[in-house]
Amino acid sequence: MSKSYTQTKINSKTTKTIISKPVKVKFEDVLKLSLKLAKISGEHLIKKQLRISSLKITVKEAQGIASNADTESEKIIMDGIKKIYPDHFILAEESAFKEFKGEMSRYEFLKNKEWVWIIDPLDGTNNFLNGLDYFCVCISLAHFGEPVVGVVLRPSTGECFYAIKGKGTKTLNLLAKKSEKKSKTTSLKKSVNKKSLKNSLLVTGFTTEKGPIFEEEFTLFKNMIGRSRGIRRMGSAALDLCYVSKGIFDCFWERGLAAWDVSAAGLICTESGVVVTDYAGQKFHPFQETILAARAPLHGEILSIFSKSI
Hints:
Elements: E1 3-10, E2 13-20, H1 27-49, E3 57-60, E4 64-67, H2 68-84, E5 89-92, H3 93-100, E6 115-123, H4 125-129, E7 136-143, E8 146-154, E9 159-164, E10 169-173, E11 186-188, E12 192-193, E13 201-204, H5 212-225, E14 230-232, H6 237-246, E15 251-255, H7 259-271, E16 275-277, E17 290-294, E18 296-297, H8 298-309
Parallel strand pairs: 5-6, 12-18, 13-14, 13-15
Antiparallel strand pairs: 1-2, 3-4, 6-7, 7-8, 8-9, 9-10, 10-11, 15-17, 16-17
Helix pairs in contact: 1-2, 6-7
């Protein structure tokens, strides 16, 4: 943080008062920091998964489970951000639950804040705690509620997706060993998906809240599975979205996700040419109740089905 000084006279003695100035935000610098913190956090999670039996698990009402691996990963990222951007607000899953108790509507005020870091230190905790390698670290920076930088790292493979608003989406292996050949950076850009729905592979998740909403989502699931080649439920919304951006999955949808699940990955999708909206077709932002991501024209076809099913 830059500093300036003012002089004040007290009893004929001159003292200096430090006045802190906000750090100028440069998206390239934000990206470098995000990649660095994602790498450190990812390496930490890999070590923790090797000792799953020693982890302490806590249950968050209507929000799934967490472990000390989640909280330690979150601290690594938050501490790194605060050193460089101490005046920025940070919305991180575990600390946010303590303050807001999982009430997503209480995050709406963040759309009016200039700079907000939105973090999921471990998306896919259930997978992680069962020894599955489908989990990730998500870091993004939002400007008045709109993501402008996003990073998603899959620690088990080192595969990292990242994007800066207006500059496209790229991937690289962030955890390649020094002895290995340096990972190439690959750009993801494809504007259309010409597959028909019946030939498409879809991916989704279900709300953790049981009741009418769950039943509606399950009805939608049954409707879509009958129209497509198949549906996967992998357990990490952020990775699901990233693999839509890569073209492995053709569509992702889900209800009831939090901002930290979709902020980084939503930007990664849009910057790779994927159309991202809510179920009503409204333009993506991280605080929506629903999300639907697919390339055109498939997105429009699925959106039409959703409007008739809900």
